[in-house]
Design a protein that fits this description.
Shape: globular
Number of strands: 31
Oligomer: single chain
Low-confidence stretches: 1-42, 175-192
Structural class: alpha+beta
Strand content: 25-35%
CATH superfamily of one domain: Galactose-binding domain-like
Mean pLDDT: 86
Strand order of the largest sheet: 2-9-7-3-4-5-8
Number of helices: 11
Amino acid sequence: MKPLINQLSGKAIFIFFPILFFWPKAKKIAIIVAVLCTFTLASCFQYYFRSGTQSRVDAATIQRLLSINKILIIHFNNRFAQLQNVAVTNNMLVAEMTNVQPEHLLYLHPDTIKANRVKKLDKTNTLMEVHLYCSQESAADQTHMSLPLSDFNRVDIYEFDKSTTTTNHVLSWVGLIVTPAAIALIVTAIACNCPQVCVNNNGNYQFVSGVYSGAVYSSLERTDYLPLQSLNAADKTFKIKIKNVKDEEQFMNRIQLLEVTHPAGTNVLADRHGNIFSYNKPVAPVSAIINQKMDIKKQIAFTDDDQYSFDSEKGENGLSNTILVFNKPVASKKAKLIIHGGNSRWSGYLYHSFAELFGTGYEKWRNQKDNSDPKEMEKWQTDQGLPLMVYVEKNGKWVFADYFAHTGNTASRDMIMELDLSQISSERVKIKLETVYQFWNLDFAGIDFSENSNATSIFLDPSKALRTDGTDQVKSLSLVDKDYAHLNADEEIDLEYQQTSLNERAQTSYFLVCTGYYHNMKKYEAEPKLATLQKFKNAKAFDDYSREKFTELENKMNSNRTAAKSK
């Protein structure tokens, strides 16, 4: 499905003018809506990228970037230059320096927190860029460089921001085909994503992700292990801010910093249960099949925002899926599945659309679910296929392994899962990922067969935790108990953690460990749609609902496009 052409935005006032006649008793409101929609369409169908800022870079990352023909640009204190003939030897970056080509001079100073707009014509060149920052000076006529990788204190890997771009395009065409009420619903869905985590680097807070997404009732309270790849300490103090969002109420139980020390050159991730696993070089699948024939292995071979959106036909289990095939060393009894992905913007829309079905009865429903059996609640979610479900083929049958928990729809992340391969004697292993139609985006999938490296970890309690009103929340956030830190809409908590003595011969990675849940506080005014709600007692009903809603909006868009062409 493609968005309506940009030229329609110039005719916005004529498209929305009929809205003035829909509500004769509320023309003032209608006029406001029409004007707002007109101004909204002035920014229709834009494209966005994020800086992908990291505080360090390693040899493996440089090699990966070179393998996909990225353009490297170095920033010294007094100049910048484009790098050619780049090589990494003994953790030294060696390259020739030339003048930066004009097409790569347009977006040198991105916002590291928010999405950055990029013109459609500039998108291809801009997304090839990687910017390396070094605090040294460079002679104006210097043409050769050789620097330790440790000298780079910031790396910007420009990444296409598919979620923000999609959001902009969705709002663009939705503004043309549906009612203002639906526009308001989608705007709310986009804004909703549980507690928002930001880390302080060099005095600026950078957004990372949401945490324990989907824990919308106390019975769904869970612990999330969020990787903090860009976390830096200032005077041995880590500063983290957690923000609430409009129409949500947060109940935060514990927020600790997990410090993991592991051998240099290895990567570590925590699975959804808190187990730490190392990995080195995950291999891409030899095939990734959807619809029983289409191979999307190139689409998920790299983390580059070229994503598979689980928009395939229904599989035999009633959900969208992809089947990954990996080469496997015969002797391997275990493996680690690594993915990069997250919930889609469409998932946020679906959630609020589902909640709206309860109408005026939503609050009563929410309160009932707060007291439900957590195991029953988890089972309902997995029966619906809302998490990203993982299966391994053993003896010709799909055996459930585990699932990847919700990430929220504002940021993707790296995730890991250990798989038992002891019953697989062949040289290949098949893995099936499945979920509700368009509920997840999958950017990368790989598997690692290496042994786990020795790693040590400690939990750091906050030394400071101040809510917006100035109250101290340290005690509430140090244990998993019945004492919660409570945030209303637009409130936040400023956290500080003290860095421990680090092992200079090892590498340290950090994870924010958050336990809690939240409530959707939005008020729904319609009558409950009981007949539709009854369908959700059946497994996989959410997939049907997603396909129906998407088809409904698509048909409206196509109908509107046909009407526009006939005028």
